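Researcher: Here's a chain I'd like modeled. Treat it as a single chain, no partners, no ligands.
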Amino acid sequence: MAKALAAEQVTTWHTKNKVILITLGVLVAVIAAVLSGCGGDKSAASGSASVSAMAQTKEEASQQASKDSDLPEEYTSALDTAQQYVDTVHMSKKGLYDQLTSDSGDKFSAKAATYALAHVKADYKANALKIARSYQKQMKMSPKEIRDQLVSDSGDKFTGAEADYAVSHLK
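Model: Modeled as a single isolated chain. Structure tokens:
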């Protein structure tokens, strides 16, 4: 009886540890994918260059904000956040506004988000092209599917002109 109980405890222990290890493995994979930007082929050098570029952009935005010291802190925070999204996630203008103001996003006021959009340094056509290339390479989507996803309100929310530019510049 004692042997059966000991064997059951060992089996239970192994089962619990298996579940924990699998869960940790999945968690590590998700974190790695998020940190790599799901690009897969980015090198460490490009990652550190991106981080330094983002830091430089954030510093420039902070310097601009310090010139406008009469601005509420929320406005400068919204601008910093917007610049990070534009530089790393390559968002559309509408997608950026929605993210900044969303209750499930950053929860900035509409005025702060509008200020951020007016002052963020962004090339939305280039952002659309970067996203389109990702769809083409990672998801093997057709040009029509890519365009539809880029302009979709439940997708990337780029303008038709930005999506057309992106699709026409795919290889």
